[in-house]
Write a sequence for this structure.
């Protein structure tokens, strides 16, 4: 199988690495009157793997969901290529947390991966041979092509995660969001995901994962509890250059 | 043979047959999504909510289907508004609104003494009393509902299976949910003459739940649900034709009998098959995902059964 080229973006052509890609400005999220995240600022260029780390309940998953457009912002804004992210949904792939998916639902691996093609193709269009080919390639890339006809309920945790990552690949998006991608999987899948992080970085994508285990050498957004509310710090540049694991500063 | 052929020469029976089969097919297909989404309670409640609309339509001499439609849509809209408040959960709103609607229907009925035959028809259906107009409307609306489900099939699957992922991709999941509820309401309305207001949900849920026990694939599940519902419908009206009982009740009981039979005897997911599989230990995956390897780091640490020796 040929290498796939970095995904061309439909947005105004970004100027190589310096283009403004994913920008979070003063992002604040509240459920009712309870503020769960406040004043998150991050300016994330292309070719980054960013780990969103922090203690339980610090809002890792919430921040990721906000970027995915699943939770409305109480304040601030999120833009992708200078467009409000709500208008850029097609360019964002989201791999949900294990608990958010109905694994008993009667769909096959191929069905799930093909779902990644719908937004690109147009919701009501029938998938084409090209879509099938891209889905096939995505499955090969994560090593589940042989399982294509299996029902997802029959898969192991690692195979299920790979299926969803294949769906994200099939989306050919610029931004890939993963909620706790490393939980509940086998060592082989874990290693493959780490390799994919590198491949995605080389393809110019932005990868954000909510995680307990920071990827060594990658960038971090560290969420930490303050008295009230939670605040965030962006460690992106430090960590990317130095490759050092920063515990949070005071 | 006469038992079979005699009713078939009766136009009223043929109309009933067409009506019930059409309703069962639509209900089976939409029921597949209701069962997989786990929103059977919502579907049932929706059916009850339609009740006052029908009763009112009946009293003022309007078309029953129209009354049901207005009530169904109005209730769905109120539901949507209520649940916008985070403190009001879906099931709570359902419990409040839909039972209130049903109570309203009961009050309307008792304050205008309807005769018991009419009441029975509304509550339990009267397929053998279906006129040509009823059947035509069923075919028209039912056909429309079915066509829409087929056209949006992939999107409904996506929104049902992984709503978060679908929303993140920009799929209008909420709109699809509302549409699914709207189609459910339409199906309830269409099923009115066949099985009546109280029993309609059974025609949606029971065949789909039965089919789920037989297959792990979605399209076969929907097809099987439609076939099971249609079979129960046909059996039901044959029996009702000969024995003077409301057809709706017989249809639902037939369908329920099929469900329990499947629950017991379905090849892979039935209780008996699972019991046998458990006996043979074949429920375990053939390839274990992990095996325990115990490495004792020090001779001081012993496995528990060694400790006492």
């Amino acid at each position: 199988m040929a290498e796939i080229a970095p995904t061309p973006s439909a947005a105004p052509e970004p100027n190589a690495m310096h283009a403004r890609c994913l920008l979070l400005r003063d992002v604040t999220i509240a459920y009712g009157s309870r503020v769960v995240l406040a004043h998150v600022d991050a300016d994330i260029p292309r070719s980054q793997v960013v780990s969103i780390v922090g203690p339980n309940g610090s809002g890792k998953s919430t921040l990721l969901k906000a970027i995915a457009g699943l939770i409305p912002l109480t304040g601030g804004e999120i833009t992708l290529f200078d467009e409000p992210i709500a208008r850029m949904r097609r360019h964002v792939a989201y791999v949900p947390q294990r608990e958010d998916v109905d694994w008993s639902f009667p769909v096959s691996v191929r069905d799930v991966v093909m779902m990644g093609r719908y937004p690109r193709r147009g919701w009501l269009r029938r998938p084409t041979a090209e879509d099938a080919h891209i889905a096939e390639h995505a499955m090969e890339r994560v090593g589940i092509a042989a399982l294509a006809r299996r029902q997802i309920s029959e898969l192991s945790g690692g195979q299920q995660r790979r299926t969803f990552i294949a769906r994200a690949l099939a989306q050919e998006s610029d931004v890939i969001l993963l909620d706790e991608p490393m939980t509940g999987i086998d060592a082989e899948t874990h290693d493959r995901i780490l390799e994919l992080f590198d491949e995605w970085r080389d393809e110019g994508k932005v990868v954000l994962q909510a995680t307990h285990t920071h990827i060594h050498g990658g960038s971090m957004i560290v969420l930490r509890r303050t008295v009230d509310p939670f605040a965030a710090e962006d460690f992106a540049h430090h960590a990317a250059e130095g490759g050092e694991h920063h515990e949070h500063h005071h | 043979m006469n038992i079979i052929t005699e009713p078939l020469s009766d136009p009223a029976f043929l109309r009933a047959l067409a009506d019930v089969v059409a309703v069962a097919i639509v209900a089976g297909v939409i029921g597949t999504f209701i069962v997989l989404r786990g929103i059977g309670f919502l579907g049932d409640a929706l059916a009850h909510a339609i009740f006052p609309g029908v009763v009112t339509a009946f009293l003022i001499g309007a078309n029953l289907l129209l009354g049901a439609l207005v009530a169904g849509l109005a209730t769905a809209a109120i539901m949507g508004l209520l649940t916008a408040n985070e403190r009001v959960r879906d099931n709570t709103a359902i419990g409040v609104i839909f039972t209130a609607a049903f109570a309203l229907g009961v009050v309307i009925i008792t304050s205008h003494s309807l005769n018991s035959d009419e009441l029975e028809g509304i509550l339990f259906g009267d397929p053998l009393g279906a006129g040509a107009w009823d059947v035509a409307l069923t075919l028209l609306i039912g056909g429309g509902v079915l066509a829409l489900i087929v056209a949006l099939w992939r999107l409904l699957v996506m929104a049902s299976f992984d709503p978060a992922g679908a929303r993140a991709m920009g799929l209008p999941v909420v709109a699809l949910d509302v549409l699914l509820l709207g189609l459910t309401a339409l199906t309830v309305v269409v099923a009115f003459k066949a099985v009546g207001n109280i029993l309609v949900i059974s025609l949606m849920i029971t065949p789909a739940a039965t089919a789920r026990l037989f297959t792990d694939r979605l399209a076969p599940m929907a097809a099987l649900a439609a076939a099971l519902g249609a079979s129960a419908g046909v059996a039901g009206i044959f029996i009702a034709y000969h024995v003077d009982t409301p057809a709706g009740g017989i249809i639902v009981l037939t369908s329920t009998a099929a469900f329990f039979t499947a629950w017991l005897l379905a090849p892979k997911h039935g209780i008996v098959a699972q019991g046998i599989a458990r006996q043979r230990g074949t429920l375990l995956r053939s390839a274990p995902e992990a095996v325990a390897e115990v490495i004792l780091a020090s001779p001081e640490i012993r496995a528990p059964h060694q400790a006492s020796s």
In short: The first helix of chain A runs from residue 60 to 67.
